[in-house]
Amino acid sequence: MDRLERAVELAWETSRAEPLLRPASAEAKQAWAEAEALRWRLAMSGRRIAHGEARKLAGPFLDEADLIQEGYIGLLRAAKRFDPDRDIRFSTYARWWVRAQMTRAIDHTGRPVRLPGCAVEQTRNLRKAIKRFESLGADYSVSDLANEVGLDVERAEFLLSQGGTVSLDQPVDEGPRSRTLEQFLEDDSVDVPEDAAIRDQEIRRMQVAFEEVLSERHRYVLARRYGLEDSEFRTLSEVGRGMSLSRERVRQIEREALLRLREHARIREGVAPVADINV
């Protein structure tokens, strides 16, 4: 179907330069549009399947509404690949696609590390087998679970171990110089070189602007208001008491300083100064 779709699109593109191909390419494109409409109708005939599977699989990672949307995607894929000559009902065929699409979406949302779709389904079957043994009150081992699901014991042990606690000292690769998971984790306490360089550049630009644009009074007000010297923010009243000025006068000085800095930044960036009516 994918190759046929590409062929129809290619024929349509080619017909723009080849007038003789236009009737046939237009007919093919119209037939493909009709086929797409029929595929949509076939897919939407199985909406109850998506709703039913969504009720079963809804959980903390994806709610029922989101799973229904994923189910519709699965229905469309099923309708595109459905072959009636295989003598199976569309609902039977579509149910597998709907469930696969939903479990894949849950896996992508709920796991930090994504597992393949087949592994997700096998893990789910193992969990179901555990519930069956527990409901019967019977003792079981990993070998019993593997036989129940039809897997190797080693693979069953691997799948059941996923999702548990992982040690940071656990090696993540093989070899004489294997590395641990801790070596791959980002240290948030260390500055990224690019960010540090940008920050230093902006600080230098701000210091230059302070010296070139602002008066001593402007610098004093901004330094006290925003804690530029001691990281201690102060109110307008507190700054005013230190300068023997009223709160309103300090606010005016602060506004003048910010306007000058803003105009200075616009000039450096090549933008014509404009009046700022919001200040």
Question: How would you portray this structure in words?
Answer:
The chain is an all-alpha fold and 279 residues long. Among the domains are: 115-161; 193-268, Winged helix-like DNA-binding domain superfamily/Winged helix DNA-binding domain (Arc Repressor Mutant, subunit A). The chain has helices at 2-15, 22-44, 47-57, 64-81, 90-110, 117-136, 142-149, 153-161, 193-213, 216-226, 236-243, 247-268. α6 packs across α7 (142-149) and α7 packs across α8 (153-161). The longest helix is centred in the first third of the chain and has 23 residues, at 22-44. 15% of the residues are buried. Residues 164-168 and 271-279 have low confidence and may be disordered.
Task: Give me a quick take on this structure.
With about 280 residues, the protein is mainly α. Among the domains are: about 115-160; about 195-270, Winged helix-like DNA-binding domain superfamily/Winged helix DNA-binding domain (Arc Repressor Mutant, subunit A). It contains 12 helices and no strands.
From the spread of the alpha carbons, the general shape counts as flat
* Cα end-to-end separation: 61 Å
Q: How many individual β-strands?
A: 0
Runs in which pLDDT lies below 50 for 5 or more consecutive residues are 164-168, 271-279
Helix content: 55-70%
CATH architecture of the domain at 193-268: Orthogonal Bundle
CATH superfamily of the domain at 193-268, by name, is: Winged helix-like DNA-binding domain superfamily/Winged helix DNA-binding domain
CATH topology call of the domain at 193-268: Arc Repressor Mutant, subunit A
Give the integer mean of the pLDDT values: 77
Which percent band covers the strand fraction? under 5%
Question: What top-tier CATH class of the domain at 193-268 fits best?
Answer: Mainly Alpha
